Amino acid sequence: MLYPIPLLNLALSFLNIFLPSSDVAQHPHAKPTTNNTLNFRLRHMHAATSSAHIYFADVLPEASSLANELTLIPSVSIGTSLVRTTRPPSQEAFTTARHMSKHGQNAWLDWEESEVLGPDVTRRETLLLLAKMTGNTYVTPGSNGWYNLTDKWNVGMPVGWEPDDDGFRGYVFATEDNSTVVLTIKGTSVPIIGGGPTTEKDKLNDNLLFSCCCARVTRGWTPVCGCYRGDWKCNQECVETALIDESLFYPTGVNLYNNITSMYPSANIWVIGHSLGGALASLLGITFGAPVVAFEPPGERMASQRLHLPSPPSIHHITHVWHTADPIAMGTCTGKLSTCGIAGYAMESRCHLGNIIEYDTVTNLSWSVRLTNHPIATVIEHILSKPWPAAEEKGLEVPKSKDRTIDCFQWEFGNFTL
Ligand SMILES: *[C@@H]1O[C@H](CO)[C@@H](O)[C@H](O)[C@H]1NC(C)=O
Ligand SMILES: *[C@@H]1O[C@H](CO)[C@@H](O)[C@H](O)[C@H]1NC(C)=O
Ligand SMILES: *[C@@H]1O[C@H](CO)[C@@H](O)[C@H](O)[C@H]1NC(C)=O
Ligand SMILES: *[C@@H]1O[C@H](CO)[C@@H](O)[C@H](O)[C@H]1NC(C)=O
Ligand SMILES: *[C@@H]1O[C@H](CO)[C@@H](O)[C@H](O)[C@H]1NC(C)=O
Known about the structure:
Elements: H1 6-13, H2 23-26, E1 37-48, E2 54-58, H3 61-70, E3 76-87, H4 91-102, E4 112-119, H5 124-134, E5 146-148, E6 154-155, E7 169-174, E8 180-187, H6 199-210, E9 233-235, H7 236-246, H8 249-263, E10 268-275, H9 276-288, E11 292-295, H10 301-306, E12 318-323, H11 327-330, H12 339-343, E13 355-359, H13 361-364, H14 376-384, H15 389-392, E14 400-401, E15 412-414
Parallel strand pairs: 8-10, 9-15, 10-11, 11-12, 12-13
Antiparallel strand pairs: 1-2, 1-3, 1-7, 2-5, 3-4, 5-6, 7-8, 13-14
Helix pairs in contact: 5-14, 6-7, 8-9
The protein binds 2-acetamido-2-deoxy-beta-D-glucopyranose (NAG) (5 copies).
């Protein structure tokens, strides 16, 4: 049995470090060298409660420009490029294919290929600005407060939304003409949904999604589902059922995306996320064909398979950005003595869906692997804010890489009985 350790909470609160404002003078933004840019303004904040209700708050133009100043985004002008994407023909078709796959049937989906305007992920400046948009802002809701999209009733601050709380929340940016919308999802630390009294449930969900077999790390752990069959064997169907029954992670993301679509019906939507928010962004990219950039995400390929999301013929519209000293993105925050293990989390998955940009901070900056290297602020301040010599040597602005291919290699999954 594991008990929460207060020290660890301290360590986790590191994950939410705001950017020091002294940085403003040191890193003025160079103007992008091409004119293929879009200008975004912060429009809304979003937050979800532990019961997965999604709330929005409008950001008034004055507050928006103040927020932009404080978060070092004087003008959010993002470099774009055409991105080839594949979308399911409809949400109904996608859901049907998903349900058929759950029942062992193969469903054919008539994926639609198209080219949309996406972020230019070959440019360092683009990644830097997207990372900043995903970081913290100091805005508080305007006079309208928080509202339910459906009934527009004003409410107080939803549970799980305090400036330094780790809820499932983020921002919505849009161009002046509403043609392109950027949805950011912040999940700086576990848990992603809620906080306080719901933490145990969230921990359970994360462990279902990103651990090999119900977070059964050692004999001393209380697993979050009963699928372990002894001797590194795990019942696959059992894990999938547990995930579908318990996890609000993916359905909440789908609701959020649909909410944004109903606010901006004809917009091209990008989804940008950090950490668990990045993993969720990627799953939404698979589901909706939206261009995605995920910073420091845990491996979400296994979660996608366990959720039976139909795989699109191409996943190049999804880009992952991480560095090698981050144990969450590397899938090495495992074992009972790791920081994650001590907190009762097993972040064991390592494989991602999409293109990979990997900063080898372990080799090139001699960093050691630790959880305090995971925050978006680390990525912004110490990685993306200056040129990366190892990439420039190859004539690139960002270091492209390949992903790992095997998750949970020591486990056997199948129809094992007890
Ligand atoms: C972009 O720059 C090119 C060459 O400098 C110019 O011909 C073109 O009109 C510009 N496009 C826009 C939208 O400003
Ligand atoms: C918005 O999200 C809520 C969940 O918070 C969901 O019940 C509702 O159907 C969504 N609205 C739209 C228009 O998609
Ligand atoms: C928000 O909407 C949901 C259903 O859409 C409802 O259950 C909930 O009570 C509403 N919350 C508030 C505070 O109005
Ligand atoms: C863009 O969307 C906002 C709602 O967020 C709306 O108030 C505004 O009128 C829209 N602007 C245009 C040009 O459609
Ligand atoms: C960075 O590390 C790679 C090995 O991963 C090495 O090949 C490269 O020379 C290093 N570059 C710099 C600038 O340190």
